[in-house]
Amino acid sequence: MNFGGTLRINKFACFTLGFILFLIIYWRSGGVSYPSDKNDLINIKSLLIAAIHAAERGGKKVIEGKNHELNIKSKGKTQEGANDPVTDADYASHCAMYYSLKHTFPKLNIISEEHSKDDSSCLNQELIDIESVPTEHKTIEYMNDEHVFVKDVTVWIDPLDATQEYTEGLYQYVTTMVCVAINGVPIVGVIHYPFPTRTYWGWYTKKASSNIPAIQHNEENKEHPRVVISRSHPGKVADIAKEAFGPKTVVTQAAGAGDKVMGVVNGSFDVYLHATAIKKWDLCAGNAIIKAVDGKMTTIKGADIDYSPNGNVKVADGILVSRFDHDYYLSKLPKTLTGPT
Ligand SMILES: *[C@@H]1O[C@H](CO)[C@@H](O)[C@H](O)[C@H]1NC(C)=O
Predict the structure, then answer these.
(1) pLDDT of residue 68
(2) Where is Mg(2+) annotated to bind (predicted)?
(3) CA–CA separation, 258 vs 62, rounded Å?
């Protein structure tokens, strides 16, 4: 008999078991350096569904607002000297979008163009049912869940893009937008049009909404690109575009960054060019959607835009959006766009 051997094995087994137990307990308790918050997860698919509902709730407020006194105020002037208006509809849409998302996902970091006025009816927003996928967007039901850390997510919302045109009755440019950025990268974008009501979305690396057409790449478009620019601050952009892309360039003015990006997404335009400063809530949703259809949005220096929560909300370098031939258009542009900075 060999008692010594058995004893040695038992001692070793006991020690190992104890050590494993210690590891399990340490891991379950979250360790010392990880407060439980940091491990909270969120499902991107649920966020996409919620973003669609939130954008559509905002859109309802925008439609309602049109039938009331608009109560137009000015937030001041843009750098180009254009009026920067805000209406009660901007606030009503902000309330609906911001607080319905916040109530549904309390730990979510949300950045909105507007801030709520002190108004309890604003805070009282119904929870969003993330199980209910609108019938036009049934394809989402067949997509996989994908969980990420809540701490890595920033949601950017624009409760009413193209407010100036809204006050002028040019409703076709008006959109509400929600964007989900993960570690500063735009991943999910939702652009909703209230007039007439329709919603487009894109989930980068996965899918775009079925109402977005497939577009054939046409190499010849580079010879006579259709370029969309801002109608409210055209600056010298039309001249810059013609100088860069050639005399056959066709320049069209439109309003709202959301609508202009959608014009590129649906193939009406080859390029969206913006020369002056612009805010990230105007860009994020369109950025995610253009990426979802394999297009690109960059500054005119070719840099990606960072949608992390703590950076500057303004992009000052100018914006280039295209579905095809992005590097070609970039190479034709001057390194800096002159004009007000
Ligand atoms: C494409 O988008 C533009 C908005 O930029 C819109 O005017 C046009 O009607 C859209 N076309 C289609 C076919 O959806």
Answers:
(1) 78
(2) 113, 158, 160-161, 282
(3) 15
